[in-house]
Write a structure and sequence with these properties.
binds iron/sulfur cluster, TIM Barrel, iron, Methylornithine synthase, metal ion binding, 4Fe-4S, 9 strands, HydE/PylB-like
C-alpha cells in the first residue's frame, strides 16, 4: 500500500496494520509529511475543537534507585539531586494553578525515601497527593515509577486521577538494554493494575534509540491494547555521564511523524507536545503535528528540573503558560478552561469504569467456565 492510500484509510477511521503504519512513518518526502500533519490536525480539531490542555510539571524528587542507561537521574549519575518538602511542593502546585494550568503532574524518580521505607514512605507520598489536591482542586497525575497495585489503589483514593508510567519501547531486547533490572512485564502490568483501579493511564515512547518503524508500529498496537487515555513520544536526548552519552542525537523528524500517526490512529486520545525536548522553540512543530496537550510547564523560580532537558527555558520563564499561549494562538488554538478539562476527564473515568465492569464480568465468566469444566 502507498503513502496516500494508507493516509486515506486511517483518516477514514480505520486502524492500520503494521506495514501501513511503517509506510506513513518512513516517508521523507516533504509534501507527504505536510499532508500527514494536516490530516492529523484536522482529526484533532474535529475531536477537541481549538482547545489545548496545559500540564504543570512538578518533578519533586530526582532521587532514583534505578539505573536506566538513558537517564540523567540514574542512581549512579552525578546529576542534580533534590527532594522538595511538602510545603515547597504545595506552594509550587498553587502557583501553577494560578498561572492557568489544568493538571498537576507530580513526578519523581523511584526514590527510596518514599518507596523503600514501607508505610512511613508510602504515607508521605500519599499525603503529597492529598495536600496538592486539597490546595489546588485540580486533577493530579502521579508518575512514581513501577509501584504495587495496593499503592496505586491508595493513590487513587488520595485524589490522583492519572498514573503515568512509560515503557519507552515495546521491543523487549531494546527495553532490557534501556531499563536493566526492571522487568518489562512488571512495568507494563502496573499500568493494567492502575486502570483496573480506576486511574487513567499514560503510556510513552522514546524515539531515536535504535528502534525501527516496525518497533514503533508494535508500540501503537500495545497502546491500543492498554487503551491508554494519554500517549506520548519524546526524542531521546543523550545525557552527560550516562552509558548512552555518546549516542548520536536525532533530529525531531521521527517524533513529529509519530505524533501525527498516533493522532490519526487514536483521534480522541490526549497527545502531549513536551517542552522537555526542544523547549519553547519546539512547541509549534509538535502542535502542528497533532498534539493537544502541552506538558512540562515549570515555574521559573521553583528550583525544579526537567527530565530530559533539565534546565532548558526554565529560568528564562518560557516554560510557562504566558510563554505557551501566544504560540498556541499562532496555531489557531487556545487553552481550554479548567472545567472543559474536568469534563473530559469525567467522561473518560466513566468509560474506564464501564470497561472495568465489562472486564470484571468477563473475568467472572471465565472463572465460572473454569469451575464448570
Ligand atoms: S528513567 Fe526514571 S526510573 Fe529510570 S533512572 Fe531515570 S528516574 Fe529512575
Amino acid at each position: 500500500m502507498g503513502f496516500y492510500e494508507a493516509l486515506e484509510k486511517v483518516s477514514a477511521g480505520e486502524f492500520l496494520n503494521q506495514e501501513e503504519i511503517a509506510v506513513l512513518l518512513s516517508t521523507d518526502d516533504e509534501q507527504e509529511n505536510r499532508d500527514l500533519f494536516t490530516a492529523a490536525c484536522k482529526v484533532r480539531n474535529k475531536c477537541f475543537s481549538n482547545k489545548v490542555f496545559l500540564y504543570g510539571f512538578v518533578y519533586f524528587s530526582t532521587y532514583c534507585r534505578n539505573k536506566c542507561n538513558f537517564c540523567f537521574y540514574r542512581a549512579v549519575n552525578k546529576s542534580i539531586r533534590y527532594r522538595k518538602s511538602l510545603k515547597e511542593i504545595v506552594d509550587i502546585a498553587v502557583s501553577l494553578k494560578k498561572s492557568g494550568i489544568h493538571l498537576i503532574d507530580l513526578t519523581m524518580g523511584e526514590d527510596p525515601y518514599y518507596l523503600d521505607r514501607g508505610k512511613a514512605g508510602y504515607d508521605e507520598l500519599l499525603n503529597i497527593i492529598k495536600q496538592v489536591k486539597k490546595a489546588t482542586n485540580l486533577p493530579v497525575m502521579i508518575s512514581p515509577g513501577t509501584v504495587s497495585e495496593k499503592l496505586l489503589e491508595k493513590m487513587k483514593d488520595s485524589g490522583a486521577e492519572w498514573y503515568a508510567c512509560y515503557q519507552e519501547t515495546h521491543n523487549l531486547n531494546l527495553y532490557n538494554k534501556l531499563r536493566p533490572d526492571q522487568p518489562y512485564q512488571k512495568r507494563y502490568n502496573s499500568k493494567l493494575a492502575a486502570k483496573e483501579n480506576g486511574l487513567l493511564i499514560e503510556e510513552g515512547l522514546l524515539t531515536g534509540l535504535g528502534e525501527n518503524v516496525y518497533d514503533i508500529a508494535a508500540s501503537f498496537y500495545k497502546m491500543k491494547e492498554l487503551e491508554a487515555q494519554q500517549i506520548r513520544v519524546m526524542t531521546f536526548v543523550p545525557q552527560k555521564g550516562t552509558p548512552m552519552e555518546q549516542f548520536s542525537a536525532h533530529d525531531n523528524k521521527m517524533e513529529l511523524k509519530i505524533i501525527a500517526v498516533m493522532r490519526l490512529l487514536f483521534p480522541d486520545r490526549l497527545i502531549p507536545a513536551s517542552l522537555d525536548v526542544e523547549g519553547i522553540d519546539g512547541l509549534k512543530k509538535r502542535i502542528n503535528a497533532g498534539a493537544n496537550v502541552v506538558t512540562s510547564i515549570i515555574p521559573p523560580d521553583s528550583g525544579l528540573a526537567g527530565v530530559s532537558q533539565s534546565t532548558l527555558n526554565i529560568k528564562d520563564g518560557w516554560r510557562t503558560v504566558q510563554g505557551v499561549v501566544p504560540i498556541l494562538q499562532e496555531c489557531g488554538l487556545a487553552p481550554a478552561s479548567v472545567s472543559e478539562y474536568k469534563n473530559w476527564l469525567k467522561n473518560e473515568e466513566h468509560k474506564n469504569a464501564e470497561e472495568n465492569c465489562g472486564l470484571r464480568r468477563q473475568n467472572a465468566r471465565n472463572r465460572s467456565c473454569v469451575f464448570a469444566s
